[in-house]
Backbone:
């Protein structure tokens, strides 16, 4: 799985994209509201790991997660 942190502009908030190995979008959510999207994608058990990783990730970079 890949994670991409996208910087918002003006009124558009910061977002996170989670993508699979084929780069298909799995989840797309605001940084301040990840719960619903992670639950819908079936990643609730890994939510803490994902959010800790996202906090350290600079905007605009792609990081591969091993989940």
Residues:
């Amino acid at each position: 799985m890949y994670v991409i942190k996208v910087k918002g502009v003006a009124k558009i908030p910061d977002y996170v994209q989670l993508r699979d190995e084929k780069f298909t979008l799995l989840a797309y959510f605001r940084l301040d509201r990840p719960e619903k999207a992670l639950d819908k994608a079936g990643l609730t058990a890994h939510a803490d790991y994902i959010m800790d990783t996202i906090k350290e990730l600079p905007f605009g970079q792609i990081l591969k997660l091993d989940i």
